[in-house]
Amino acid sequence: MIRVENLHKHFGGFHAVDGASLEIRAGTITGLIGPNGAGKTTLFNVIAGRLSPTSGRVTMAGEDITGLPPHALFGKGLLRTFQIAHEFGSMSVRENLMMVPPGQAGETLWNAWFARSRIAREEEALLRKADEVLDFLTISHLKDEKAGNLSGGQKKLLELGRTMMVDARIVFLDEVGAGVNRTLLNTIGDAIVRLNRERGYTFCVIEHDMDFIKRLCDPVIVMAEGRVLAEGSADQIMADERVIEAYLGTGLKNKDAAAGATA
User: Fold this and answer.
1) Spatial contact of 242 and 230, defined as CB atoms under 8 Å apart
2) Per residue in 3-43, pLDDT tens?
3) CA dist 235 to 21, 81, 186, 210, Å?
4) Burial degree of 96 (CB within 10 A; 0-12, 13-18, 19+)
5) Distances from the Cα of 231 to the Cαs of 22, 40, 193, in angstroms?
6) How far apart are CA 245 and CA 70, in angstroms?
7) What is the DSSP letter of 108?
8) Cα 234 vs. chain centroid, distance in angstroms?
9) One Pfam family name from the record (predicted)?
10) If we measure between CA atoms, which residue out of 115, 79, 69, 119 comes closest to residue 100?
11) Which domains can be identified in the chain, with CATH numbers?
12) Which residues pair with 20 in a beta bridge?
């Protein structure tokens, strides 16, 4: 679905993404891991249109989307979430969901004056849709709570719910587990798997929690120093000497060796 070809993003003399090439296949939950500074979030930002690449190409289902702005990509079904959730804190959880779909009738002054019945019908449909999303995510009890009062994990669920209010084709999740307790992280993981299996969502997930990655993701892509270092299943990645050296750390290798010697 997404193909990245020889992508570069430079900030002065710093090469945050330095010739990365990868593919995110339709229907997968692809993990993207690597040490801090590997270029993962910069890569996300280029794909999602928040940054223009220095060079290289990004295609979606064969269409060149290089450098398209986020709103244009949103219309094509490419969405992303952020490590720090971007909710509208003074609005309710349900209202945060209802405002997502673009082109609503109530957004124009003309309709506000002369098409009130149309607006009412549309809002009723959006209300039903939002309640369905909240039920799916098991947070319907929070529908009237101000979004700013939610915990970090609940805000991540709300961001995931916002992607469900439109016809998302691929969703980029940036450190969905950051600041989230284990119980809520399991709930988020369950929702991602269900969206993938039941609704055909494609996901690409940046995450440092390897247990979470192993549970959800296949394949897993490893980045280091702005380039793709390795790709494979979670088990293959965790056994790859290059990955152990660059990201997982020699401590893991030594621990495994010590365990083998003890056995």
Assistant:
1) yes
2) 999 999 999 999 999 999 999 999 999 999 999 899 999 99
3) 22, 27, 20, 10
4) buried
5) 9, 14, 21
6) 36
7) S
8) 18
9) ABC_tran
10) 79
11) 2-87+165-262 (3.40.50.300), 94-149 (no CATH)
12) 7
